[in-house]
């Protein structure tokens, strides 16, 4: 997803306090149950398909929208992602959300963090604010029983990339340390490399993970989300078969395929290597149906959930569930018999 411009602030607030919880089953227990559901689906070989859904009208509305479009997994924002200030989640609303997920057929729910967060920033005040923001995201996810928060690693700005990568990794580590009692973790998302954004190469992701993994307790709470549009725009080929094999082997060698917990399935409006992050509907962009067919059937990706972030607007410019249904059907139609 694209990151909005970040406005520098003069003072970094302290990390927010965890919201009060009221439920018969603790959010931590729910989070672990959600993770276990996702893992059981993965080990069964079934690939969950879903889409990002709006929480307009209430958090549980996103679950309704997921059901309406035939999602098996779901991604949401838990807050307004273009503002630093955030209202606490009402415990009753959190309980309604968890109940809605339990009663649904969703095998996995993940959250995406705010676009303002930049743990790599050279501005110490912005970086402190970003770390506090990650803490808040993890606390909110835990309260909702969500096991993973997808997060962009940030942008280097004028810093050397090597310096920025270490600052990003240490910032993520600081957020994990401040939430050590929680089960929810962070998925570092691959990026297209627009501007000075970090994470466009597998080497950069690997550098951050190696730094974070120096604290063994953190490694289980950090994984990777691979965005197909982003890696394609960053220059990685996804077709033909030999090219995708090479890309995935490189990912496995540098990062480890076991750390790939989620795929954002997005076609690209721009050509490979453009370093421009512009999502397109499945099969209508420069990646194309051949590549998505290979992705849907590749043995190294078996069971890893795929979530759409494709355009939702119809001809009238308004969001329509028909778009998600069409894109999910396109992906399902590419699965070979027996997969």
**How much of the residues is beta strand, in percent?**
5-15%
Low-confidence stretches: 1-44
**CATH topology term:** TIM Barrel
* The CATH homology group name: Divalent-metal-dependent TIM barrel enzymes
| CATH top level class name | Alpha Beta
Helix content: 40-55%
The number of strands is: 10
Could you say how many structural domains there are in total? 1
Query: N- to C-terminal separation?
Result: 29 Å
CATH hierarchy: architecture: Alpha-Beta Barrel
Largest sheet: 8 strands, parallel, barrel
What kind of oligomer do you see? single chain
- Helix and strand content put the structural class at alpha/beta
Shape: globular
What's the overall average pLDDT, rounded? 90
Strand order of the largest sheet: 1-2-3-4-5-6-7-10
Total of DSSP H or I helical runs spanning 4+ residues: 11
- Rg result: 19 Å
């Amino acid at each position: 997803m694209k990151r909005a411009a970040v406005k520098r602030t003069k003072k970094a607030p302290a990390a927010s306090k965890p919201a009060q919880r009221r439920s018969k089953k603790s959010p931590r227990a729910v989070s672990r149950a959600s993770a276990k559901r996702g893992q059981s689906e993965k080990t069964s070989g079934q690939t969950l398909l879903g889409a990002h859904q709006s929480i307009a009208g209430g958090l549980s509305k996103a679950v309704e929208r997921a059901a309406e479009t035939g999602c098996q997994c779901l991604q949401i924002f838990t807050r307004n992602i273009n503002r630093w200030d955030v209202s606490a989640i009402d415990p009753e609303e959190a309980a309604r959300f968890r109940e809605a997920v339990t009663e649904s057929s969703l095998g996995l729910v993940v959250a995406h963090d705010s676009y303002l967060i930049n743990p790599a920033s050279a501005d110490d005040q912005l970086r402190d604010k970003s770390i506090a923001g990650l803490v808040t995201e993890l606390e909110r996810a835990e309260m909702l029983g969500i096991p993973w928060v997808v997060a962009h690693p940030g942008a280097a700005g004028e810093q050397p990339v090597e310096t920025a990568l270490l600052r990003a990794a240490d910032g993520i580590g600081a957020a994990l340390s401040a939430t050590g009692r929680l089960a929810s973790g962070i998925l570092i998302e691959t990026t297209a490399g627009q501007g000075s954004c970090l994470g466009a190469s597998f080497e950069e992701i690997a550098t951050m993970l190696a730094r974070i993994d120096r604290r063994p307790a953190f490694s289980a709470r950090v994984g990777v989300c691979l965005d197909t549009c982003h890696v394609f725009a960053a220059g990685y080929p996804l077709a033909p078969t030999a090219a995708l094999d090479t890309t995935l082997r490189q990912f496995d060698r540098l990062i480890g395929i076991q750390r790939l917990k989620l795929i954002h399935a997005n076609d690209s409006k721009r050509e490979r290597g453009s370093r421009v992050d512009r999502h397109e509907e499945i099969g209508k962009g420069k990646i194309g149906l051949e590549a998505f067919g290979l992705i849907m059937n590749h043995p190294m990706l078996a069971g890893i959930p795929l979530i759409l972030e494709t355009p939702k607007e119809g001809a009238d410019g308004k969001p329509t569930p028909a778009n998600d249904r069409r894109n999910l059907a396109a992906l399902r139609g590419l699965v070979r018999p027996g997969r």
